[in-house]
Protein 1
Amino acid sequence: MSGTRPGEPACSAGPGDAARAAGVTGISVSNPDLPGPGATSPGGTRIGRPARRLRHAEHVMGTVFSFDVPASAAPVLPEVLSWLHWVDATFSTYSGGSDVCRFGRGELTLAECAPELAEVIAECAVIKEQSDGYFTAWSGARFDPSGLVKGWSIERASNMLSAAAKTGPSGTGPSGTGASGTGHSVNGAGDMQCTGEPERGRPWRVGVAHPLHPSALAVIVAGRDFAVATSGTAERGAHIINPHTGLPATELASVTVVGPRISTADAYATAAFAMGGAAREWAESLDGYEVFAVAPDGATWQTSGFAAYTAPA
């Protein structure tokens, strides 16, 4: 599909050993099946678990959403999870009764759909224009905004946690960023939005899975208040379509985008992957976002500002 990377049921393992050795708090992958930060891996080990924190993995949207939050966020988490399941039902491209499917078939006008659909369509249009059409909510004649919905959902869930945080004393409520160690991360199928710090003085460290060596990490990014998204062929093959040719994109093995918003980073990663070799020049033009790419032969390139996010292994 053009501009989309829909999830599939969780079933496989990932670069857990490399991640644990590097002390990362999460893994960004093109594979929606890998466990997120704190999610139990097939080996039963938890990745990067600091004290007094809550980890939760929720199966939704055909994949796994993982949460790493302060333990005090427990009361607000059910509301966030309930909202994610509402998104699943409303934006599903597999359920014929969803707003997305009914809108795509012309059975509902946009005004008759959930207002969030108009928001998603508007964001898709912005990315389409910015990427010269390499990102699109349409796969031929089929309406499918999945390429943006997952990142948008991660970002909205993170915003809900941050908003709840502001209700507590001094702005350090259930899951806030008002104090050291009260940050949170939301990981949807390997794409992450991170806020604050997981514990005092320690930034988030996110390992990017190597597309050619599944047990290894290609790079580690670190920081506070950032998002990271990866698109690639490692697990699902050439599933991203270049909308200008109608053919699968194969010039890159993976693309990772880092920046402030996961919805934008996720869509940029998909667009850049569809572009192939042309993505390098385009990526340098992105305001506030940096890119790291791996070619099928193992060669890598990165934008001029990406080094600001890299961390030692």
Protein 2
Amino acid sequence: MVVLFTGFLIVFVISQRKKLQYHKELHALHEAQQESLTQQNLLLEQRVDERTAELVIQKNELQKSLHELNRAQLQLIQREKMASLGELTSGIAHEIQNPLNFVNNFSEVTRELVAELREDLKNNEPDEAMAVADDIEQNLEKISLHGKRADGIVKGMLEHSRVDTGKKEPTDINKLIAETLRLSYSSFRTKDNTFTASFETMFDEQVGQFPINAQALQRVLLNLFNNAFYALKQKKTHASNDFNPVVSVSTKISDENLLIAITDNGTGIPPNIIQKIFQPFFTTKATGEGTGLGLSLSYDIVKAHEGELRVESVDGDGTTFLIALPLN
């Protein structure tokens, strides 16, 4: 009987020790899990703080851009660069309001996501918190995109306000055009190295040295060449494989004018919008690809040279821009 009781007691003690060991291990595992959750929470809070700081920087940059925009508006008013100030102001307000609305909307949504993220962290829900953090990051990318859009508009306006024919000096027009064409093509290919196009140049050697503001005219040429390459790329995206993108440039002395013609066989311009292309902020490009100031700026520069900038286009077949500069 004593032996039986002793054996039972030994078994009981062993069982209790195993239970005690199990509880100790369970407690240690629980503490390890808590430590892991604490580290994850700290990491996520750090990410939240970093993203919030980025958001503050984006908003500050936008405020700075708006300040520069106001300054550019004053310069435009003083120099009376536009025939209708009311139309310009309306265009400015419309263009800057679009990216500003996006920034404000995404900022508000991000603020709500930050509150949701903090709640998830308090509730030890790391998976949900990570998903919210990803949403915050996507919103910040969109805020950055539209902030840059606003910045591009402001820079374009500042460029507009700085237009000045300055001093005209004898310049080799043919050489300037050839160099600008290569510069534009190289710049375009840095954005898309799969794009290729052919050039055709027909330069009148009688042009020789011509008195112009070379820097200003080069800006016009760059705008026209960039638009030509853009139209060619758009058409090549949808055209058959045998489509050969071509940009043709010619110079000619005609009557009392120097004529510069830039032709592409790209998408062309629809008749219903061709009368609007020289208006400030008018663009057919996707958001972020253009501010709509390039052709307006070019028109002003040519006018400042007492010349004319005209356009001829066939929708789907191509476009020709013609610059006419007076010889005298």
